[in-house]
Amino acid sequence: MAHSDAHTHSTANTVAITFAVMASIIMNVLDTTIVNVALPHMQGGLRATVDQVSWILTSYMLAMVIVTPMTGLLVERFGQRRLMIASVAGFVFASAMAGQAHSIVEMVIWRFLQGLLGASMVPVGQAVLVASYPPERRGVAMATLGMGIMLGPVLGPILGGYLTDDASWRWCFYVNVPVGLLALFLLARHVPEGGQSPHPRPIDWQGFLAMALGLGCAQAVLSLGDQDDWFSSQTIRALSVVAAASLVLFVWRSLTVERPIVNLRLLQNRALALGSVGIALFGLALYGVMVILPFYLQEHMGYEAQTAGLVMAPQGIGAMISMGLAGRLLNRRANPRAVALTGIALGALGSYLTLSYNLHISMAWVIWPGFIRGLGLGFISIPLFTIAFTSLTRQETAEGSGIFNLMRNLGGSVGIALVTTIISEYTQVAWNQMGGHITPYVPLLAVVLHGPVTAVQAQSLGQMLGQHAAMRGILDAFVFVFWGFIVLIPLVLLMGNPKINRPPELVVES
After folding, report:
1. CATH number of the domain located at residue range(s) 1-198 in this protein
2. Residue 98 has what DSSP assignment?
3. In which band, very low, low, confident or very high, does the pLDDT at 454 lie, cut at 50, 70 and 90?
4. Which superfamily is assigned to 263-422+484-510 in CATH?
5. Among residues 210, 219, 278, 283, which is most buried (max CB within 10 A)?
């Protein structure tokens, strides 16, 4: 055992493990953001609508929501090393297949498998990385991991933009193959076995299947409802019934089974319950903006993918700065509720500024609101975690983290669906409202055009009408994100003012 520990903590081996784990985690985190600026190009290449192409993001996040709570149980059965290798190998394979997809259905399937196979990568990588460092240097391990995770929102849009413009949107997926293969080689060579239990806990398969079916059907209702005219569609009605029944069964199993997939009994703790709702709203705001901006910038402002990625990156830079500041403030016994409220104010301000967007704004009006909003996001996430977990025991913290991460990813997944629905629905409403005033029988229009409307003028007016109607839909989506921040204020106030007797243990979220 002593020899094994010496090997594990040797400098060369630690560097190799760190490199392997960080390559895996950055690859996983980047795939949440790298495709954002490529979505308009993928929409054309896959012949999909805005609603349909949003599933490229949604399916990935939904799969992670489903599998992440099972990570601990899978480690007990297969061990950290084997699970990490299997996750990276599966993720690389699914990435390669997503890159060659030629239809939206094919792409969604491979993206779902990407999320399914890679969901365990971050939490298991965190455990492997911490175990590879001696106790006195584990703070360095967590800082390294945190920096890697924070690089995703910064590098994702930039890298995605360059790959899309200089190669093809398919390279947003192909780029994972060489990185993943290198990580696999290092993982197989340097990561020791660990975490496997001779008596693993039983898996509540009924609860797991009910959760997967319920969340999947609910997501389908939110994503497909608008284009199928909601409950006038027999398919939407059937999906709604299955979703409701499955989620009721999941909740019942979680409250009655001794070892459920997700221990919902912990939600009796007010701080954790409100914090989980808050982090869901955080995910909604974060991922909602990530869907709105690429389409706005590329489809209506005429930006290339590279430029769109560069002007979106400051939001990630702002989040990176504020997360570091938030950690320092909390370690110095700052009031977590005050830090969170500061973040909400910044996030709301950055979102409020977007409500004045139009088809002719300057680049600075995209960069600065994004940076301010990013500052807010960083100040919100860590204090929310701190407040939610202050009153939990160490054993409850591990289970509560599963709820917290599930709600964050679920909020993002639902947010993407709602934002695309709002854009589609209110674009059509605006088209009908404004289009009703553009007819040959409107006297003022004939005066402006110096005569009856010609065919060329009608075509030009139709294009202008489409652009302005889409802008109305985008602004309504920004209003939705803005109110997402505002609703966070009473939630944080209701969570109470925790008394922290020790520096908070900032667990990196998967």
Report:
1. 1.20.1250.20
2. H
3. low
4. MFS general substrate transporter like domains (1.20.1250.20)
5. 278
